[in-house]
Amino acid sequence: MLKDKIEEYQGSTIQHGPYNDRIYLMRLADQPSADFPQQLISLAERKGYSKIFAKVSEDVSSDFLQAGFATEAEIPGFFSGRTGALFMGYYLQNARKQEEDVARLEDILHIAHNKQGTAVSSPAARFQLRPCHEEDIQEMAAIYHQTFASYPFPIHEAGYLLETMQSHVAYFGVENEGKLAALASAEMDREAANVEMTDFATLPEQAGHNLSFHLLQQMERAMEKEQIHTAYTIARAASPAMNITFARTGYRFAGRLKNNTNISGRIESMNVWYKTLC
User: Can you name the residues that pair with 83 across neighbouring β-strands?
Assistant: First the structure.
């Protein structure tokens, strides 16, 4: 299936397509028209999508609420440490709104909360944490291809990794005996002083060493130097390991995005976590 495309729409940035079966409002225009939420709904209807996922400032959220959007997660101080963000959902098909195995998702969240603040031992000496560079891209693409049966963005493509690395994404890795064992990325919005901690992948044979936890800590230190105020993640709600990793590192739960993202072979719900860095 073709990947979803990112494009400008009425001055805003959206990702849309059949792969995630949604419109994702990634960045809202500085001065959107009051009827912009309805324009998104009309576009989704024409394309036959079943969901719209919108990330918007609380200052303009009333227009979205009036159009029928619902708040699924909320992060205070998301924009430059001053204005909160609402992660909102609009469902064009009722089936998209119905989550499977809600009890399990709640259990995972409960487990993660109980792990907040628990200690993690330092990584073994053979693991070296470092930033990734352009010469790592082919190896990175291979790891992402091996790790994820599907992903909302084409991180298994070397061209995409290169383009994002050269623009706004800092990639980090754990090296073991000269080869990458784990990866993650920090997708920066420098203007709004926030960063999405994402793209975590650990090779199966290297699991059990808390490499994602150590990567996350290194990424936070790097983002503090970049004067980034707020870090957040959109993690698979069905993944105990990733939710525990963020809870242990001091992130707060912001809410769950229902059936939001095509990842690991199917559409899944995602948990939003956030942390104030500086």
Answer: 79
Are 243 and 237 in contact by the 8 Å Cβ rule? The answer is yes
Q: Rounded to 10 degrees, what is the CA torsion of 140, 146, 149, 152?
A: -10
Distance CA 41, CA 26 (A): 15
Side-chain half-sphere CA neighbours of 117 within 13 A: 2
Return d(Cα 89, Cα 259) in angstroms, integer.
10
Q: How far apart are CA 247 and CA 249, in angstroms?
A: 5
- What domains are defined for the chain? 5-97 (3.40.630.30), 102-276 (3.40.630.30)
Which amino acid, 175? E
CA terminus-to-terminus distance, the chain: 41
Q: Show pLDDT as tens, one digit a residue, over the chain (278 residues).
A: 578 999 999 999 999 999 999 999 999 999 999 999 999 999 999 999 999 999 999 999 999 999 999 999 999 999 999 999 999 999 999 999 999 999 999 999 999 999 998 889 999 999 999 999 999 999 999 999 999 999 999 999 999 999 999 999 999 999 999 999 999 999 999 999 999 999 999 999 999 999 999 999 999 999 999 999 999 999 999 999 999 999 999 999 999 999 999 999 999 999 999 999 99
- Helices in the chain by DSSP H: which ranges? 36-47, 61-66, 94-97, 102-114, 137-147, 158-165, 211-225, 240-248
Report yes or no: 44 and 35 within 8 Å, Cβ to Cβ: no
- Cβ(25)–Cβ(52) below 8 Å: yes
